[in-house]
Prior knowledge:
By secondary structure, the chain is an alpha/beta fold.
Amino acid sequence: MSRYARQIAVPGFGAAAQERLGRATALVVGAGGLAAPVLQYLAGAGVGRLRIVDPDRVEESNLHRQTLFRHADIGHPKAEAAARTLGDLNPETVAEPVVAALHPGNVDVLVAGADVVLDCADSFAVSYILSDTCLRAGLALVSASVIGTEGYAGTFCDGAPSLRAVFPELPPRLGSCAEDGVLGPVVGVVGAVQAQMALTLLAGLEPTPRGRIVSYDGLAQRFGGFSFLRAEEVSGPGFIHLSEIRNNDFTVDLRAEHEGEIVRSDARRLTVADFVDGAPLPEAGQRAVLCCRSGQRAWSAAERLATLWPGEIVLVALGDHKEQP
């Protein structure tokens, strides 16, 4: 126990909390910048098992903020490189790499057995898929996001409102690290907050972070935060996997032709702006399936379609899908 002596000595922590950590399993989705502090602090603290899900490989442009990796890791799967690093950090923690993208078709399998879920994926579609899943399963979701010099971390579900309840509408524009850039230390700060929230939950410490968001402005050097325990759950279009599209669905591909072949031969290629009075609509009994690369255009189109048609609407985030099934 000498490895954990300093944290066991923290008032209110103790040996019982350490034992809880040793029995715990955390699912960490994304092995990039946020996951760098998250994984290192969870492994260092003695969390028993870390399931690391990421489909990507290490790139040179990652290294300024994804501090789990070294130059020699370039080209290797992030999940596997992260697991190797964690094995050197603490061999008592089992690091389980999963080189795959999380999607509605595999989320239940990946979440199974986890005591907490950490969203480090930099994907709003993944965030909402995880939130919907954790709400159904009664699991805590610790989700974080950083763009530029600002970010936040919050704990949703498991007795607290879901991420969908707190953010029922998309902002006019969604940024990303690739498009808007990001500063490494800001990612480190927010990831450390995310790790602390997860450790507080797994160790059974009080006060709980459930229903709390902590924000950080790296340029102003300022923290903020608020409680969202009174947010009410809302319904909204959920995400499905590409393989779940049915032959009788009203399927729309919102991508431009240069983004890839149409998702299905029976799909229509439309834009968000096409969903106005007089637009083609599903027939009675059909389900509307709206597809795009990230899910953002599908979400926007769903908001428009819902004002024109009262039926079921679901979304598909295709990622870099190129070929017809």
